[in-house]
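Moderator note: this is an archived Q&A kept for reference. The question asked for a predicted structure of one protein chain; the sequence and the answer are reproduced below.
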Amino acid sequence: MAIKVSFVSLGCPKNLIDTERMMYNINEAGLQLVAEDIEADVAVVNTCAFIQSAKEEAIETILDVAWLKKNKSLKGIVVTGCLAERYREQIFEELPEVDAALGTGSWSNIVEAVKAVYNGEKYVALDAPENAPLSGDRVVTTPEHFAYIKISEGCDNRCTYCAIPSIRGKFRSRQMSEVVEEAKQLAELGVKEICLVGQDTTRYGEDIYGSYALDSLITEVSSIPGIEWIRILYCYPDKITDSLIDVIANNKKVVKYIDMPIQHISDPVLKRMNRRSDEKQIREVISKLREKVPGIVLRTSLIVGFPGETKDDFNLLHEFVKEGNFERLGVFSYSREEGTPAYDFESQVSEKTKERRRDILMREQLRIHTAFNESLIGKTLKVICEGYDEVAESYFGRCFADAPDIDGKVFFSSPRRLKEGVFVDVEITEVFDYDLLGKVK
């Protein structure tokens, strides 16, 4: 009888793709994928360890799964991904419930790891992150109509608060031909929306082609029949070129939405963060995007309470948010991460101050978000249907302004039955919290 294997994938879409590749390898080896941990002989937990809250979620998940070893038929736990990579020396000592650990450079060893723990053996593979294959077949776990494609791995930016370079290794772009071929395969499976992801998507191509090539990649992917939406995530402002903006503006398949994490707007804070951009450059790229791509929705993430952030720094950031520069915005309290330069910085900010500053910005952004949503009332938007909500007695989906699993949704009525994955024109009639309400025209 085949070994039954379950997967839990934590963290970002980039991590999810690694999970999907491991699932494919399990299938190919003749092992059996099961949906629930309680049904499994071996459970795989693919972890995130970017910030403290992610580490806590990973540990809690591992301990929850470990209950099945004591009380049910689970024989072993394989921990993969960022937690295993970042705490390679401590993971077995701190979490004796774990039977195998695969670092970010060793996800392709998943079959050997599963077989080992099934047979009661410990297993460890911690190859350098740069050794991880950049491509590989996947078991796509997202809904049929959308999928993520990872176009690069690793990061060279060395932001002082970030552990990613040590966890994921140096920046490496995938060959364009491989990305395009993967997009073709996804289109043949019925995928209509492609979300391009990487630690720094705007740097794509520099290492293998000698120049930024995200614009060329998008153009190639847009030529694939069946792909209707291309969405770009994780764009660094200092690498958003005029040619990329032109592609966003003029290519009909590129949704007018860009995710551009800036982290702060105060130059002293940006300098201590070792960010590549400054206030002037950030404002210039926002202005250029607004001018050349009318109606574009901009998303960003901010960090408050970075070591040395003064009242003046925060007030500048607050005013910047008030201006409504971003329709979509998330705020994180600085997480002090061991192994990063900022961990030892002086003038650490208290947790109470961090939370207060975060709450101030989130309240401000709620006002901006609501005003933007209200501006859509009376307009007709192209919406991809994602299903039917029995409780709300309404269909739901997303418009151009909403990325999967990040932003809000559009709830709408329809006089006819709709299949998941179809595009419909929805007239927006109301706003409800972060979501939109409407009806099919």
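Archived answer notes: The chain has 14 helices and 19 strands.
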